[in-house]
Amino acid sequence: MKLPPFPRALRELVARLPSYPPAAVAAFLSNLLLGDTLGAGNLPSARGKVIAIHVRDAGLRLVFAVQDGGLVPLGNVQADATISANARDFVALALRAEDPDTLFFSRRLTLEGDTELALQVKNTLDGIDLRALTLPPPARVRAALHLQLRGRL
Hints:
This protein is α+β, with helices and mostly antiparallel strands and 153 residues long. The chain contains six helices and five strands; from the N terminus they run ααββββααβαα. A five-stranded mixed β-sheet has the order 3-2-1-4-5. It is globular, with a radius of gyration of 15 Å.
C-alpha cells in the first residue's frame, strides 16, 4: 500500500501540537487491543522505560512509559529509545507489506537510544498476528481505561 506524501502544511501543524493527546489515544488502543503485550508483564526489562514512536514525515512524536498492564502515555519527555519511520513505512509494517529488517537496513526505520530496548519492542510488535485480534472483553476495556486514567483523577 502506498500512501500519498504527507502535506508539508499539515506536517508543520501536527509538529506544533502537544504530543500527549495522540499518545493517549495510541496507548489506550494498544492496551485495549493488545493487553499487556507491550507492558512490563511481557517485557520485564522494559519496566519504567520511556519509548518514543516518531513519525518523521507527519511531525508526530508519541511517547510512552512501559508499565504493568501496558503503555502509559507521556508528554514531550526524553525517551530511552526512539523508533522512527515515515507514516507509509509504519503502515506497511502494520499491514505486513514490508519486512522490518529490510526497512532497518535501508535506513527507512531507525532505532535510537537504547537500541536493545527498541529492538525488543520492534520484535514484539513484529510478532503480533494482527489477524488474530478480536474485540476485547469487558475486563480488558476496564483495565485499559484504568491504566489510561491512572494518576489523572
